[in-house]
Amino acid sequence: MRSRSAVSQIPKERIGFADDLCPQKLWLQFMKYTLSVLVENQPGVLSKVVSLFSRRGYNIDSLAVGATENPGVSRMTITGQGDDYILEQVEKQLNKIIPVIKVRSLGTDAVQAELMLVKIGCDTQNFGEINQIAALMKAEVASVSKSSVTLKFAGDPEKCDTLFDLVRPFGVKEVARTGVIALEQG
Amino acid sequence: MINGAEIMVKCLEAEGVEIAFGYPGAAICPFYDALYSSSIRHVLVRSEQNAVHMASGYARVSGRPGVCIATSGPGATNLITGIATAFMDSVPVIAITGQVNLEQLGRDVFQEADITGACESFTKHSYLVTSAGELPRVFREAFHIASTGRPGPVLIDVPQDVQEQLIPRFQYPEKADIIGYKPNLSGHPMQIKRAAKAIEEAERPVICCGGGVVLAGAREEMNAFAGKTGIPVVSTMMGLGAMSNAKSSWNLLPEQEEPVYLGMIGKFGRSYANRAIGEADLILLCGARVGDRAIALPNQIAEQAKIIHIDVDPAEIGKNMRVDIPIVGDIRQVLTALTEQVKPGGFQEWRRQVLEYKNQFVPRGEDREDAVEPRSFLRTLSRLMDEDAILAADPGQCQIWAAINFTQRSGRFLTSGGLGTMGYALPAALGAKLAKPRRQVVAVCGDGAFQMSFNELAAVCACHAQLKIIVMDNRRLGMVREYQNIRHGGRHIATHMDGNPDFVALCRAYGIPAALAENNAQAEELAREMLASPTPYVLVCRVDPETPSV
């Protein structure tokens, strides 16, 4: 039996150039995206959203869920990476979930924030240095013990990364981040 | 006062449900008790998976959602393959499952399974009902969601104590209002105008009919559009039945108003249909999701042709193929609008060319005397069957034999084209027969697939359904064996069906008349007898294992 795919019927010279323009190659150019998703506040909606990402092979960098001004509606902020094709598919597939009310892709100019707690191992000698970093970054010292200090920081995700990099040399014991939440400008 | 179970039955009655397919169990007992005093007919299946297939066959033929019922735990998990099958083929099915008591939920009690969670990725939507008061809204929404937009299965999981919960009165909502679900049906006028212009500019356009055309009931609109424009039509496997392929001779160029239909494309499709797609400069995808079996390398096709994609599901547009003109909307509405805008006639040279390709083609498989040649037998069978007959085919070689050799007039072709579920044909055919008792319904099964659902012969008997079943017995798993021939150097493993029963004796044990055909002449004679008989009938055909699919 010969395979009779549609493509086998195309004259060879006409598919010669197709390789360069093949969208699959463009898929490799990933970029970060932020989606703001309004959902009906009902049981199972989170699992519907998450299972969509896992089954279609889209990655999630962060996911934050919280209440909105309307008690029946929650907002999910999802960040991830993908190209235009993936972003378009993610948006369309999310829209197909029945309790999803609205999906909006936010640009880089959106107002973004993240809350981070970082517990750093320290002794009396380097506490001063950590305190300096905290003051410089406008992080709050949330808790202090004999062997550790916990900083609380709220700001855009890049600044969270910066603070984390600054305190890493002291020995980070634990980190908790909420994931990005974002709203459109204006 | 009224309890949850009675509400569920009243909801089904309010939706006009006449028949439900199911299998009872402890957690769904209150519902069955309420069904006792209802006029809804219940068909007792022999395995829950087949209940979904029957509901699917019923839905596809009747155009209304099919209803299936199972109990909690294993009953519910047995539904999964059926639900996934319906999901892949976009069939409106309502699956109702019992669940353990609400307060025991999550404690891993006897026959508990998280069925809404398990079915997450292949239901259009699912509900776990937590109070009887929600039931009317849930049922109204479920039927609305299942049957509108791109149809699909909806699961309703009802704990036993919710079925027993008493509430003061029953009131069914007039309409479902779901804030996040508003399918767009009309198609954007601007996009339709662009499409009409692209058609005008094209030289070698082709229409590709997908399952969406059949689901939307857009057969007339498609024929009118193809007739007016003169654009040749091809179809995917799920799109079979949208166009008639009854005309066998194309020696003369058809009248302008007559659509040119080339048949099925794809890996197992007709070479001339694939050739038309390959040479086209404009392809109108209508309700086709560009599956890999239909179009193997979509990006290469898209390089050389402009693509117009009409689909009610926006997520299908651009998913597997680059698209130039997307139109989100119901195929019927969009085609009606498009037909008004396009100019009649044209493409004479192109029509002549594709018909020449078609006329060069000689169908394969000739009648044999030592075995039944399935391809020629299916062509014979098509001639014997009624104009509006329904044919259901099981995946594997049977699916291909039937898809490309069955003559479509005004009938239907039912198969599991998306998931490719073995054992689909028999229960789906029974569902179809119960939906349209006066129409001829024939199931074509391989010996492998038949053994996955022949337990439903009992349901066929119990329903007194005049279902006709053809078993193509080659004592092999033919399609897998073919793969083994092509890809694995003919090393046949696990494809020889040792231990097959005597199918004729087996069917007779159910009280169903059955006969064995050893060659095409016998098969034709027995097929006549089968189609004329007033009872169910099983015709077993002895097939040569070396017979290829195409």
Total count of helical runs of at least 4 residues of chain B: 22
Structural class of chain B: alpha/beta
Strand percentage of chain A, roughly? 35-45%
Question: Which protein chains are joined by the largest interface, and how many residues does each one contribute?
Answer: A-B, 39 and 47 residues
Tally of structural domains of chain A:
2
Radius of gyration of chain B: 24 Å
> Looking at the structure, what is the overall shape of chain A?
elongated
Write the layout of secondary structure elements.
The complex is a heterodimer of chains A (186) and B (550).
Chain A: H1 12-15, H2 18-21, H3 23-26, E1 31-40, H4 45-56, E2 62-67, E3 73-82, H5 84-96, E4 100-106, E5 111-121, H6 124-137, E6 140-144, E7 148-155, H7 157-167, E8 172-177, E9 181-183
Antiparallel strand pairs in A: 1-3, 1-4, 2-3, 5-7, 5-8, 5-9, 6-7
Helix pairs in contact in A: 6-7
Chain B: E1 2-3, H1 4-14, E2 19-22, H2 29-36, E3 41-44, H3 48-62, E4 66-70, H4 74-88, E5 93-99, H5 115-118, E6 125-128, H6 135-147, E7 154-159, H7 160-164, E8 166-167, H8 189-201, E9 205-209, H9 211-215, H10 219-229, E10 233-235, E11 261-264, H11 271-279, E12 282-286, H12 298-304, E13 306-311, E14 325-328, H13 331-341, H14 348-360, H15 374-384, E15 390-393, H16 397-405, E16 412-415, H17 425-435, E17 441-446, H18 447-453, H19 457-462, E18 468-473, H20 478-487, H21 503-509, E19 514-517, H22 520-532, E20 537-542
Helix pairs in contact in B: 1-2, 1-6, 3-4, 3-17, 8-13, 10-13, 15-16, 15-22
